[in-house]
Amino acid sequence: MDILNISKTRSSGRSRPRSFAMSAILCGALVLAPATAFASDAGEMSKSAGIGVGSAFASLVYTPVKLFYAIGGCVVGGLAWAFSGGDNNVAKVVLVPSVLGDYVVTPEHLKGDRTLEFFGRDPKYAEERVDVASSPTAPGDDQAAW
User: Fold this and answer.
1) SS3 call for 131
2) Comparing C-alpha atoms, which of 93, 49, 98, 46 is closest to residue 72?
3) CA of residue 17 relative to chain centroid, distance
4) How far, in Å, are 25, 30, 94, 95 from residue 33 at the CA level?
């Protein structure tokens, strides 16, 4: 049984450990080749990776708290709807801030490009608030004082 004899060499004359070493070197070269191509972007990639990891860890804490608040808001909103005789506006006052909002911390939140909203806002009021905040006021305008 020559198949089980490990110490025998292959037909090419090389031993198995030498072939294994050559294969390992070749695989290592193939794996490390893309790293040299991305060496110029290494600083940016490590920065974005760090922000990504930070947002993942922040979400591990933030998401369960937000879910607990949203589920509690659903229960209280349902009770408010039932005790108000089925008034949807009463339930909406409780449901909108508790259910709407962000559930996950993203890298944009950590960079400051986007605000993290724990308490949700009705979309029609959110748009009006952006319009009011972005409207310019004159220096002598009475609204600038308050």
Assistant:
1) helix
2) 98
3) 46
4) 12, 5, 56, 54
How many separate helices (H) and strands (E) can be counted in the chain?
A: 5, 0
- Residue 120's nearest CA partner among 112, 129, 111 is 129
* Total residues belonging to the chain: 146
Q: Tokens representing 10?
A: 């292959």
Q: What is the DSSP letter of 5?
A: -
Q: 51-60 as b/e, with b when 16 or more CB fall inside 10 Å?
A: beeebeebbe
Cα gap 115→102, rounded to integer Å: 9
Q: Cα separation of 71 and 49, whole Å? A: 32
> Structure tokens of 62?
């933030």
Comparing C-alpha atoms, which of 105, 97, 104 is closest to residue 72?
97
Per-residue pLDDT tens over the stretch 127-138: 554 444 444 555
pLDDT digits (tens, 9 = 90+) for 85-97: 888 888 888 888 8
Residue that the structure tokens 């292959």 belong to: 10
Q: What is the mean pLDDT of residues 26-47?
A: 64
Separation of alpha carbons 118 and 103, rounded Å: 8
